[in-house]
């Protein structure tokens, strides 16, 4: 198993990509701290991990709050004595709105979760990994950081910010043997698909969007999870500071 004996944290682990990643980490031998603002969702994922013979914890946490981000790391290390993988996955999307239609509260919320949440995760997780001289911090960015679509400027800006943050953190962490990597998934079949498209999934618009993906389909959460497992494993030991596109060729 690629992650045997390691300890992993997944933010936004109660559904979608986060849930798929938490389950994949557990299958590969990791003990997983599943966190989400939706504690019930995190507990459901933990139950699935334990039913399959894995170990983990479920925590309610708001990644925009320093105390919660610190508590996640402290709970992992106090329980298992280490932290090997932190998947900064929690994020929020944007209804399709042009810039003049976006209010300041929406802008602040998107940046609080998508950027500050990643920064706080790094603030508390990376020092542990640096002391261990081992660890991988993975950031869930988006193809929006590379190829934005009209009406998603705030979301795209937040994801562009964390791609640059990934590169800066990778430079800080590399001398300590720690890697920092971002991923850029194309639209994925998760609960976030509706706000990505509009207030409801317009099947005609979705079909037009799929036509822009050379491989002809959206991601499934498991597509993203398997890539994160690879990046977290020793198989990717020379990959840091980059953003891996999981996009079926859309960003070509």
Topology record:
Blueprint: E1 7-10, H1 16-27, E2 31-36, H2 39-51, E3 56-60, H3 66-80, E4 85-88, H4 104-132, E5 135-140, H5 153-173, E6 178-185, H6 193-197, H7 203-210, H8 221-232, E7 243-246
Parallel strand pairs: 1-2, 1-4, 2-3, 4-5, 5-6, 6-7
Description:
- The chain is an alpha/beta fold and 252 residues long.
- It has one domain: Rossmann fold.
- 46% of the residues lie in helices and 15% in strands.
- It has a seven-stranded parallel beta sheet with strand order 3-2-1-4-5-6-7, with helices on both faces.
- Helix 1 packs parallel to helix 2.
- The longest helix is centred in the middle third of the chain and has 29 residues.
- The protein is globular and about 50 Å long.
Summarize the structure.
It is built from eight helices and seven strands. The protein is an alpha/beta fold and about 250 residues long.
Please provide the count of β strands.
7
Poorly predicted ranges (pLDDT <50, ≥5 residues)?
none
DSSP strand (E) fraction?
A: 5-15%
Q: How many domains make up the 3D coordinates? A: 1
Q: What is the string of helix and strand elements?
A: EHEHEHEHEHEHHHE
- Which topology does CATH recognise? Rossmann fold
Give the C-alpha Rg.
Answer: 17 Å
Q: In the CATH hierarchy, what is the architecture at level 2?
A: 3-Layer(aba) Sandwich
**Which percent bin holds the helix content?**
40-55%
């Amino acid at each position: 198993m690629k992650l045997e004996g390691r300890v992993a944290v997944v933010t936004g682990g109660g559904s979608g990509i986060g849930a798929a990643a938490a389950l994949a980490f557990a299958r590969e031998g990791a003990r997983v701290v599943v966190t989400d603002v939706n504690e019930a969702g995190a507990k459901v994922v933990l139950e699935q991990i334990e039913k399959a013979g894995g170990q983990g914890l479920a925590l309610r946490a708001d990644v925009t709050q320093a105390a919660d981000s610190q508590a996640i790391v402290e709970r992992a290390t106090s329980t298992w004595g280490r932290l090997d993988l932190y998947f900064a996955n929690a994020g929020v999307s944007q209804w399709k709105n042009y810039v003049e239609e976006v209010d300041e509260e929406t802008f602040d919320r998107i940046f609080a979760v998508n950027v500050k949440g990643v920064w706080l995760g790094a603030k508390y997780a990376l020092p542990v990994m640096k002391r261990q001289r081992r660890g991988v911090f993975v950031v869930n960015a988006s193809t929006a950081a590379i190829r934005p679509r009209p009406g998603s400027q705030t979301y795209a800006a937040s994801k562009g910010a964390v791609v640059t943050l990934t590169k800066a953190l990778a430079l800080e962490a590399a001398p300590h043997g720690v890697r920092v990597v971002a991923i850029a998934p194309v639209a994925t079949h998760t609960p976030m698909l509706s706000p990505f498209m509009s207030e409801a999934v317009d099947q005609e618009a979705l079909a037009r969007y799929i036509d822009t993906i050379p491989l002809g389909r959206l991601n499934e959460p498991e597509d993203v999870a398997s890539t994160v497992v690879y990046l977290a494993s020793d198989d990717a030991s020379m990959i840091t500071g980059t953003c891996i596109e999981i996009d079926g060729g859309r960003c070509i």
